[in-house]
């Protein structure tokens, strides 16, 4: 399977709603679908999954300061 990546500028509220939707799906009873670009991906996480949280601070004279926060969840499908 190829890697799908969707990037967009959203408000803080829109970002929170997307994360809440994913959290709700994870709390559900099994599999769920995620829409990325024009593709729907069916995911079936097991009860335990890997989780990685990262924070990056960047400073550049030309671009100014930026911050990045990433969340990565991974698992082997059952």
TrEMBL record:
- Which Pfam families does its entry note? Amphi-Trp
Which residue numbers delimit the Amphi-Trp domain? Answer: 6-77
By its UniProt entry, which InterPro entries does this protein fall under?
Amphi-Trp_dom
Q: What is this protein called?
A: Amphi-Trp domain-containing protein
Organism of this sequence:
Halosimplex pelagicum
């Amino acid at each position: 399977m190829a890697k799908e990546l969707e990037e967009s500028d959203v408000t803080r509220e829109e970002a929170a709603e997307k994360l809440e939707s994913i959290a709700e799906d994870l709390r559900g009873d099994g599999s769920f679908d995620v829409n990325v670009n024009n593709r729907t991906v069916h995911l079936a996480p097991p009860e335990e999954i890997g989780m990685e949280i990262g924070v990056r601070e960047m400073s550049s004279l030309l671009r100014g300061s930026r911050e990045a926060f990433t969340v990565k969840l991974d698992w082997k499908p059952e």
